[in-house]
Design goal:
The protein is of the alpha+beta class and 814 residues long. The strands form 3 sheets. Strands 15, 16, 17, 18, 19, 20, 21 and 22 form an 8-stranded mixed β-sheet that branches. It is elongated, with a radius of gyration of 34 Å. The relative contact order is 0.12.
């Protein structure tokens, strides 16, 4: 320990004696270690840690699959969920939810909020704990019982000022009195896969008021979770679920016709399945950045070793063993790395805050990211490892030179044996940087392709907002239709509005999707329940407000109401699949309709065909689409779309005033330009692209420093040689070729090695790419040309310095 303390004190003195070297090395390491700490915090929270629910490893997400229609990950129907719950022996409990929108009125301004309608056991399965009051009990879901509600902590604080006397109070939801029985803890969040359409910002919970077992077996809307019994595995539960679905297919014709099957997946794995590849790729990227930083510091240590060579030779002459010298140099390297780690923690903390600020709202699982002791421990371990990694080779090189050879080389002003090793370090830096630049380039190409994707509609100058007319005041369909159509006419007449319309679900909204089966009106029973399409209830003017062209037929009119024959508009994707080579206009389809609060089926005439719109993902066409007149299928929520002549935000105050004149208790929600929904659809890719770009820039800067350092060091070591060459008649161009040849040799070698490595590793990014192949030759060529240019630029200053060598001065020293 005494010897170790002596090494530490001596190492600290040597670092303090060379503050310029120390600062550069510490900053270089801080960048690498800080980036690693920040991304490890994300990896730890998203991939390694369990979800913030008690016994999260026993929670399962349960999906239905329709083999006949080729659809997986379909929500449950009420009867199927009840049957699974009654027959399963490996699932201790099963619950379901559906997220809707309600009008919150009574006190203060009217407000539209998201409400999770749940079975009475849903919150208990997730291990929710109320900060006030209680959770739901079976009696709360019984028909005829007083309706109850549980508030989120955010809504309780924002709407009621954190009133401790809130329990038992009656509040107005959709014009109906409900009793507050609890307030959830502030840490509770719903964290589900993005395609489950369960937003994390649900503000309140209510129980279903209907008997789920009595609902239609093909009305699939419930998102179902289950809790495994102790000792059961997901594989066992999945096998049991397959067996139960087989029993149900044998018992119910509709289940057999759909080819229904149940799939059970771990909630943790299913939630992170889309983000895991990006997080792992970024973690690998910061690992490469750290390797580049270590190579840079190793190169700095080799340069410094030339200055310390006489010191080491004298210590050897005084009896120091090679092991003693190596230990001293390694101690200094570890001290340097720990200083870099300390500075890296500061950079990592800022980097993590930057990550959280940039993260898209859809990545709710990242809310649990924190700079905790696990991150601190990881940073400390990485610092130690980095110190050993970049210190071993320079220490072995410095301690391996013989005493007489060192003194002779010193007298000549050169230190043999290090140029080749330093060039190898530069080659490694360039190769690793090439890999990172390829990843960044592919993500940029992907994002550009997403920006260029034809969504089928125009989002510019379109203002959107949502309304949910309260059932208590608009109980009948005709009342709701009258409200919506009158508002649409009023909006269309406003100054600055070119067109106004409405749709049940906006493109890329997180509100639950409505899709159902369709079939030819005269199809035999075996051909029914085999084809699925997204269904949309729209008002006349919706297509005009979004610039959606009619391919054939006509648009809806206000006269297409409940008293007329049912009509629909289909998209060109459905038309081509159903009637290839024929006109769809005039044909009949059996489709699902929504009237008087219930789903039913009816035959409808196709009166028009429109362009296919992207509603769910930019990277996938999704299902075909069926549009129904709102007057014939009035849904509980409608999103208005207003095409403005100027900036859409300028219409907000006018719209609020217009709605207030019609109904002062009718709240607006999600008032925003349509372009925000499109940007939200690109957000995850944009997030990954920015992080990959930041790592690539960091690697590029470090690699440039390494190239410059090696070239400059080579020029300084060969100053006398260059002077002699010029004295013997060498031209400046000859010197330039000499220096550039030696400086660019490791760069070209690194680009070649990086090209091979990236070509092998790039396919691992396939799940993150869109519209571009992992082995995209233009991207590889562009990165190779760019890195070559950077290498030339890094060699520029040393080349200029070599050209200015005075032969007389150089010969004087010789």
């Amino acid at each position: 320990m005494a010897t170790l303390w002596q090494d530490v004190r001596y190492g600290m003195r040597m670092l303090a004696k060379n503050p310029g070297f120390t600062v550069v090395a510490v900053l270089t390491l801080a960048l690498g270690i800080g980036a690693n700490a920040a991304i490890f915090g994300v990896l730890d929270a998203v991939v390694l840690k369990p979800l913030p629910y008690p016994q999260a490893d026993r929670l399962a997400l349960i999906w239905t699959g329709f083999k006949t229609a080729g659809q997986a990950r379909v929500p449950f129907s009420g009867p199927d969920m009840v049957d699974l719950k009654q027959r399963s022996r490996l699932l201790r409990d099963i619950g379901g939810t559906w997220v809707g929108s309600v009008a919150f009125t009574g006190t203060g301004e009217p407000e539209q909020i998201k409400v999770g309608f749940v079975t009475d056991n849903f919150l208990s399965i997730l291990g929710a704990h109320p900060a006030l009051g209680r959770l739901f009990v079976p009696h709360d879901g019984v028909k005829g019982a007083a309706p109850t509600i549980i508030l989120s902590d955010g809504l309780w604080r924002r709407r009621f000022g954190a009133d401790q006397q809130i329990l038992g109070r009656s509040i107005r939801v959709d014009g109906q009195a409900v009793i507050v029985i609890g307030v959830l803890a502030p840490t509770f969040r719903l964290i589900f896969p993005e395609d489950a359409n369960i937003p994390p910002d649900v503000q309140a919970f209510m129980t279903f008021r209907d008997d789920l077992a009595q609902q239609p077996r093909d009305s699939n809307y419930l998102r179902v979770i289950g809790q495994l019994v102790p000792g059961a595995t997901i594989q066992q539960a999945a096998a049991e679920a397959h067996s139960i679905s087989s029993q149900l297919r044998a018992e119910y014709v509709v289940d057999a016709r759909q080819g229904e099957d149940f799939e059970i997946l771990p909630l943790q794995e299913d939630t992170i399945r889309d983000i895991r590849p990006a997080v792992l790729a970024l973690f690998a990227g910061v690992g490469l950045v750290l390797l580049i930083a270590c190579a840079n510091v190793a190169s700095l240590l080799l340069s410094r070793a030339g200055v310390r060579q006489r010191e080491i030779a004298l210590r050897c002459a005084l009896g120091a063993t090679r092991g003693r010298i190596v230990r001293q140099l390694l101690t200094e390297s570890v001290l340097l790395s720990l200083l870099g780690g300390a500075a890296g923690l500061i950079l990592g903390w800022w980097g993590m805050r930057w990550l959280l600020a940039l993260r898209p709202k859809s990545l709710a699982v990242m809310e649990t990211v924190s700079f905790d002791f696990r991150v601190l421990g990881y940073a400390f371990a990485v610092s130690l490892l980095a110190g050993i990694l970049f210190g071993v080779a320079p220490a072995a090189e410095s301690s391996g030179a013989g005493l007489m050879g060192t003194l002779k080389a010193w007298g000549k002003g050169v230190v043999p044996g290090r140029g080749r090793f330093r060039s190898l370090l530069v080659m490694s830096e360039v190769a690793l940087g090439f890999v990172l630049l390829i990843g960044s380039g592919l993500m940029i190409r992907t994002f550009v392709r997403l920006v260029d994707v034809d969504t089928g509609f125009h989002a510019d100058h379109v203002l959107t907002f949502q309304l949910t007319p309260p059932v208590t005041r608009y109980a009948k369909d005709e009342d709701r239709v009258h409200l919506i159509y009158q508002l649409t006419r009023n909006f269309s007449a406003l100054p600055g509005v070119q067109s106004a319309g409405g749709v049940h679900r906006l493109p890329f909204d997180d509100y639950v999707n409505w899709y159902s089966y369709y079939w030819l009106d005269d199809s035999p029973p075996q051909d029914q329940n085999t084809l699925l399409a997204d269904h949309r209830a729209i008002t006349p003017g919706f297509f005009r407000s979004l610039g959606v062209p009619l391919v054939a037929g006509r648009d809806f009119e206000e006269s297409d109401d409940a008293t007329r024959r049912r009509v629909i508009i289909v998209d060109e994707l459905l038309a081509k699949r159903t009637w290839p080579g024929e006109s769809a206009v005039g044909k009949k389809l059996n489709v699902e309709v929504y009237t008087n609060g219930d789903f039913s089926r009816a035959a409808a005439d196709v009166v028009g065909v429109v362009k296919h719109l992207k509603y769910l993902q930019l990277t996938d066409d999704g299902r075909p689409q069926v549009y129904e007149p709102y007057a014939q299928s009035p849904r509980e929520l409608l999103a208005f779309t207003l095409l403005s002549k100027g900036q859409p935000e300028a219409l907000v105050s006018v719209i609020r005033a217009e709605v207030g004149k019609f109904d002062k208790d009718l709240p607006l929600s999600k008032v925003r330009p349509l372009g925000e929904y499109v940007r939200q659809a690109r957000a995850a890719t944009r997030f990954t692209m920015l992080l990959a770009g930041a790592l690539a820039v960091l690697a590029l800067v470090l690699a440039s420093i390494g190239i410059y350092g090696v070239t400059a060091y080579s020029v300084s070591q060969r100053r006398n040689e260059i002077g002699i060459r010029m004295a013997l008649g060498a031209q400046p161009s000859d010197v330039v070729h000499l220096v550039l040849g030696q400086g660019m040799a490791p760069v070209i070698a690194g680009i070649s090695l990086g090209f091979a490595i990236a070509w092998l590793l790039a396919p691992a990014l396939s799940s993150l790419l869109f519209g571009v192949r992992p082995t995209d030759l233009p991207t590889f060529a562009a990165v190779a040309a760019f890195l070559s240019s950077v290498g030339l630029l890094a060699c520029y200053v040393p080349v200029r310095r070599a050209m200015r060598v005075d032969p007389i001065v150089a010969l004087r020293y010789e």
